[in-house]
């Protein structure tokens, strides 16, 4: 497969600017190629979420379920009065030391929606975690499930709210997710000296090495986590060009054949293909 490489000189938005390096490569260097100058492999941790207090719960319902604050709190209070959830009005986002995590998990072990994940945590206690960070405000503990709904008797938005709270609770005591990332630096001869922006391209890929808490959640980004994610976007609101998938096993000194498609709007990006492909 072809792999899109990012040009260090960034995008070109005019046909003329895109055509110039294209002509230099494809008219003077046949076939054009890129040489791998650096390979960096890392593991990155995606931390499990913090336990839910009322504010975080309302944000989660709004962003993930599109349920407004008044309706979300009303559903949570009904679930509390029915024994399904703990008291939903709390400022605490840390489990107290007296909170029995295994016992709370055991209630969810037979639920077909997430029981497989819960049973795995209970069988391998080395993966079972306490809640990350947060603050114990001394009022009520974070919002957690208190009763199983394995028969799925709940319905409508009450079921969706219970589902979100329960998945979030299980996620808070699950291992962090581990991503394996690879960054490749490329030099294209014919566009400039090695190290020059005009001749430098890069590839970035990632694969999920250990899903951890991501295996149980349906909504990965909401509340403070999503807000921090927005701040980490690049200029113009773009996210980093990191392909969600493993890159081929490149090595320093390897050469890759290139093609440079021109888009209809005049932008261009170099596409690198593994040398094993025709």
Automatic annotation (TrEMBL):
Catalytic activity annotation: ATP-independent breakage of single-stranded DNA, followed by passage and rejoining
Gene Ontology CC annotations of this record: nucleus
BP GO terms, sorted: DNA recombination; DNA repair; DNA topological change
Transmembrane domains' residue ranges: none
Domain named Topo IA-type catalytic: residues: 1-278
Region (Disordered): 224-278
Ranges of biased composition (kind: Basic and acidic residues): 224-236
Function as written in the Swiss-Prot or TrEMBL entry: Introduces a single-strand break via transesterification at a target site in duplex DNA. Releases the supercoiling and torsional tension of DNA introduced during the DNA replication and transcription by transiently cleaving and rejoining one strand of the DNA duplex. The scissile phosphodiester is attacked by the catalytic tyrosine of the enzyme, resulting in the formation of a DNA-(5'-phosphotyrosyl)-enzyme intermediate and the expulsion of a 3'-OH DNA strand.
Name of the featured protein: DNA topoisomerase
Organism in which the protein naturally occurs: Corethron hystrix
Taxonomic placement: Eukaryota, Sar, Stramenopiles, Ochrophyta, Bacillariophyta
């Amino acid at each position: 497969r072809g792999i899109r490489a990012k040009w260090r000189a960034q995008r070109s938005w005019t046909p003329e600017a895109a055509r110039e390096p294209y002509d230099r490569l494809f008219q003077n260097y046949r076939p054009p190629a890129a040489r791998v100058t650096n390979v960096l492999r890392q593991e990155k941790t995606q931390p499990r979420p913090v336990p839910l207090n009322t504010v975080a719960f309302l944000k989660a319902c709004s962003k993930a379920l599109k349920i407004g604050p008044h309706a979300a709190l009303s559903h949570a209070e009904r679930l509390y009065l029915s024994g399904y959830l703990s008291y939903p009005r709390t400022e605490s986002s840390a489990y107290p030391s007296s909170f029995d995590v295994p016992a709370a998990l055991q209630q969810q072990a037979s639920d077909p929606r997430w029981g497989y994940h819960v049973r795995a945590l209970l069988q391998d206690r080395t993966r079972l975690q306490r809640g990350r960070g947060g603050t114990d405000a001394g009022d009520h503990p974070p919002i957690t499930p208190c009763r199983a709904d394995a028969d799925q008797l709940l319905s409508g938005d009450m079921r969706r709210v219970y589902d979100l709270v329960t998945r979030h609770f299980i996620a808070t005591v699950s291992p962090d997710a581990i991503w394996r990332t690879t960054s490749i630096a490329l030099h294209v001869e014919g566009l400039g000296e090695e190290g020059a922006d005009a001749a430098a391209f890069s590839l970035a890929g990632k694969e999920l090495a250990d899903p951890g808490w991501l295996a149980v959640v349906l909504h990965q980004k909401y509340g403070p986590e999503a807000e921090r994610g927005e701040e980490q976007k690049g200029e113009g609101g773009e996210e980093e060009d990191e392909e969600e998938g493993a890159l081929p096993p490149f090595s320093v000194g390897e050469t890759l054949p290139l093609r440079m498609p021109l888009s209809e709007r005049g932008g261009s990006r170099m596409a690198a293909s593994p040398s094993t492909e025709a």
